[in-house]
Amino acid sequence: MTEPRAHGRILAPRHYEPAWWLPDGHSQTLWGALARRPRLPPWTRERFELPDGDFVDLAHAGPTAAPCVLVLHGLEGELRSPPIAALLAAVVARGWHGVLMHFRGCSGETNRLARTYHSGDTADAAAVAAALRSRHPRLPLALVGYSLGGNVALKYLGEKGHAAGITGAVAISVPFDLAGAARRLAQGFSKIYQRRLLTSLQLKARQKARHIPSPIDLTELARWNDFYTFDDRLTAPLHGFTDAADYYTRSSSRQFLRGITVPTLLIHAADDPFMSPAAIPSAHELAPAVTLELAQRGGHVGFITGRVPGRAVPWLENRIVAHLAECFRAGHQRGTNG
Fold first, then answer.
1. Is 134 labeled as catalytic in the residue annotation?
2. What is the pTM of this model?
């Protein structure tokens, strides 16, 4: 009789061959973010009211009376981000219902409170997931998170354990170690990504301060040009953390991986330019329900395949929905068998 595994697994990604014409993590990352033009399926907006008086905007696509996939985007992402649009299209093509939760302030409208969103905030996703379950309690609910959204998803699953109420999950290009990610983004060519993301965050902070008085002195905002400084001066105090180190320590998902009981697939690349290989967890850090598919090449939310230059094959979203289909099928069999 085979002994149950005491920990998760690390495997090579299924049927994945990185495009030869995108030879490194930077080219995979940039092509995936800038060159892809997936078609967004028809969708509707829902203003979801949160318990603290704030709101998040949800984007619904596909039939409502169907298995549901709740999607969490990355830092400063939104509905039209290429990986989000591509996944929602793949979800709808399966006949499922897709729901993107925009983090606070990411839907094009400023949120009501002085606070915003951060890598360790699981409360909003938990509230949305609970509402979706209550609307269709007999239908399965899956969770997919990209980058920051993946960190939130894994932290939520690890915190909740068996009470998560999720049938299956996927997390892509997760910054398992936030302090390490901040250091990596301050190095070399990765500073380009840091600059782009911080420019967006700084602009939002300035615009918001015109309408909602900020509890943080933003006089030196333009000088907070690396993530550690920005998080130390703004993100941490705005959300109740002592400093950036406290924020990173308490919010990094790596420490929550052993608590996950939901069948969860992690998709990651060793050449991800948003973090170093040291951030990748070992098999012993993974719960038995967790499988890490680790590619040597793939970049950050890239994973572009295809033998003809400029013609990508949508491996990533196909792999995500294939895993979720397995989870839905297994969950249905368990329900049928009592």
1. no
2. 0.96
